[in-house]
Amino acid sequence: MLDFLISWAEQLIVALIIIIMIEMIIPNSNNRKYIKIVLGIFILYIIFNPIIKNKLEKIDFGTVLSYEANTNETIENQTKINYENQIENVYEEKFKNVILEDLHQKGYDSEDIQMDIKFENNEIQVNKLYLKIKRIDKSKNNSININEIKIEEKKEKIDKDELDKLKTMLSNTYNIEASKIDIESENSHD
User: Fold this and answer.
1) How does pLDDT run across 40-50, given as a tens digit for each residue?
2) What does the radius of gyration of the chain's CA atoms come to, in whole angstroms?
3) What 3-state class would DSSP assign to 118?
4) Could you say which of 108, 117, 133, 181 is the most buried, measured as most Cβ atoms within 10 Å of its Cβ?
């Protein structure tokens, strides 16, 4: 560091001596002010060149450029992931609504719909679909109270064949492998 400062001071002193000699040699004319401007720029160059040169030598442009490239790549990847997540969320919500509507038309209601979907290669893939269904109750009131006697309607159970038909219908309608669809009825555990 001391060698750098000594070298820089020597260059500055030599430049000042040269500038003083040039100012003594040039005649008093209209061009003298332009020559002084050029000499001033030369002094600024002599003063700042070693500092700038020293700083530029310390900068590893390969690292700076690779950092910028990595940053841009990271931003692009994050944007792509966010875009894919948005597509998955919108698709999942719309798909749930369509399935609920289809089930309702078939006389079923769903208590729970869960799905595992993935957006890859510009396609939506349904990896798993889980439904917990029950029959739509035609009567609004399931029980009648008469003088502390309670009469309840018997809910109709959904048998395995009916669940298999529903699974096949969903598989064919939505082009999902039947093995990826799991349907459970509300009263299947009774």
Assistant:
1) 888 888 888 87
2) 41
3) strand
4) 133
**Could you report the per-residue pLDDT of 83-99, keeping only the tens digit for each?**
778 878 888 888 888 88
One-letter-per-residue 3-state SS of 28-53: CCCCHHHHHHHHHHHHHHHHHHHHHH
Closest by Cα among 114, 100, 99 to 182: 114
Is pTM beyond 0.85 here? no
Which residue spans within the chain are E strands per DSSP?
108-120, 123-135, 143-146, 149-152, 181-185
Q: What is the largest CA-CA distance in the chain?
A: 128
Work out the burial of residue 15: count CB atoms within 10 Å of its CB; fewer than 13 is exposed, 13-18 middle, 19 or more buried. Answer: middle
Rounded to whole angstroms, the Cα distance separating 26 from 35 reads: 9
Following CA atoms 67, 72, 73, 76 in sequence, which dihedral angle do they give, to the nearest 10 degrees?
Answer: 160
